[in-house]
């Protein structure tokens, strides 16, 4: 048990080393493309993090920045999101595998605490903007009445919106609304998480396919140029043969060797 605990702690420390590097380069690794931030900049940044991981023995020597970006980081992020989701669900089991540790906290810092990923929506920052949840409208649609008609309505548990009213405050009660993301069934959540995890990989594959098509197009153009140059050379050779034969006829010279052997 002690050996397992020590190994687990060592593994956690190793992950933290890499995550700290990712956190330092967060603006480049996850920033939006611009005139000053290109795909090459991102690739170089991932390679730098991977090189650091290799230097401390955390990342295998045969791995590269693509592995770190498309496999290592998404898997770690998925584990953290699942832990946070588990902690939010009432009555969920605990255990060492469910405790949010330093690694999860660092991943959450990298993603952002207010990130839609952390909030359980399964999308990256920047994919949605101005996301608003109108709790009052939800209350009215569930109860079928307005707040003015029936007073503050108690939201049914299926809406997963917990409203706690502090009636002790004599100057006016404030509704503390806690949004609980357990409204999604397990199938929807799983699908969203998978789509989010594969988003970067899909984008990378599209860019790769574009590069391949561009390379093929360039190769085709080069081949066409070569073909035309060969055709031109054949025409020039044929012209030279005709001119040589014409001179031979004028001079009355019988060719010693055939023109075909000469040219």
State the separation between the terminal residues, measured CA to CA: 86 Å
Helix content: 55-70%
The largest β sheet comes out as:
2 strands, antiparallel
Fraction in beta strands: under 5%
Spatial ordering of strands, largest sheet: 1-2
Mean pLDDT: 72
Q: Number of domains in the coordinates?
A: 3
| Helix/strand/pairing category | mainly alpha
Q: Count the DSSP helices.
A: 9
Structural overview:
By secondary structure, this protein is mainly alpha-helical. It folds into three domains: 2-127, no CATH class; 135-182, no CATH class; 191-263. It has helices at 2-24, 26-29, 39-55, 65-88, 102-111, 135-143, 147-150, 186-251, 259-262, and strands at residues 161-165, 175-179. It has a two-stranded antiparallel sheet with strand order 1-2. α3 (39-55) crosses α4 (65-88). The chain is elongated, with a radius of gyration of 34 Å.
